[in-house]
Amino acid sequence: MTGSSSLSDQRQRPVIDTSVAHAARVWNYWLGGKDNYPIDHEFGQRVREVMPDILDIARADRGFWSARSGTWRGRRGSTSSSTSAPGCPP
Fold this sequence. Notes:
By secondary structure, the protein is an all-alpha fold. The chain has helices spanning 7-10, 23-30, 38-50, 54-76. The termini are far apart.
């Protein structure tokens, strides 16, 4: 290694393509989260046009996974509060 660059400078950061909607970010948008981009809003609105109940479905699904993970934590004695559904914001 030469120069003043450090190991952290040499690592590439992940690239987030904000020109393409992503399922997890659209889901985040439907749930009122802040980790999404205008393209996710646009796609989320288009889905709502053909599936008007999607917000209710997203909230019900979140409620299910929250309750389910609470039951699982209780059985396992864990105090972690993470959601067990992949792609869902906490």
